[in-house]
Hints:
It is found in: Cell inner membrane; Cell membrane. One of its GO terms (molecular function) is dipeptide transmembrane transporter activity. By secondary structure, the protein is mainly α. Helices cover 74% and strands 0% of the residues. The chain has 15 helices and no strands.
Amino acid sequence: MSFSLAYLFPGDVLANLTGIVPANDEQRAALEKQFRLDRSYLVQFFYYMGDLFSGEWGYSFTSGIPLREEIGIAMPATIELATYSMLMALVIGIPLGYYAGMRCYSSSDYIINTTSITTYSFPVFWFALLLILVFSLQLDKAPLSGRISLLFDVEPVSGFILIDILLSDLENKRLAFKDAMSHLTLPTIAIGAISTASIVRITRRSVIDAKNQPYIAAAMSRGLSGGQIFFRHILRNALLPILPLMAIQITTLITNTMIVETLFSWPGIGNWLIQAIYQRDYPALRVGMLAVSSLVIMLTITVDMFNRLIDPSREKYEHAAI
């Protein structure tokens, strides 16, 4: 699909790939030979795959920098924001979901469930704009954009701003860390709140299903206390169905992250792709789409492999279901 984008973009294919409008037929023929446009579509695709695996991803029209370097800078920023948002969702969502599930159909359960459904219904761009309006513009409690103040010059090492600050030789390392945390807070909340609402609902449903299993009734008949039943039987058995559903949330998480990046001017892959669209940087769009798709696929496969590692019996039941 990324290879075909060069033919789907408006305009001439040669101009889309090179950014050059040939002045005459001789120049066009030379450029077509250089970029192998004189070959068949299938041959061009194999050359394209070879360039990808060799690291030759092309150059940006606007900056002239190799696209591999630009993606290497933008992608870690996106992964960082998505990682912190997912950690927030897990730390808050799973305990709340367990609490709501254990007290299902009570007043506290109705409050938690209603709040999670309402939060999950918020469009992420609207919720992010609301946070900016309240905490940045009215209360002036959080920065409006960026990853860190321009006062701090942090050399990128890992791509994660907090880790890079800890590894740096800055004199005011504590102030830099605090400043980076203030820049991270609002975009993380904007993404993490919606992910948290989803985790709460999934966990609650899983706990309720686990409570209704026959082995819970058997445990109660043996005289086990509520705490023993929870930690020995409900906790693990309710967690196992949650993990496969987390893989489904990865696509939503990355998508929401890319949307929020444009609102907070976060220098991630989403903001970078938006700028490429405005500037009609077609090689950047093509490689950027491929990078984002590869990230989502790799994360989904990783989570699924982790699920099979902690629950080997899951594959047996899946085969039986098929």
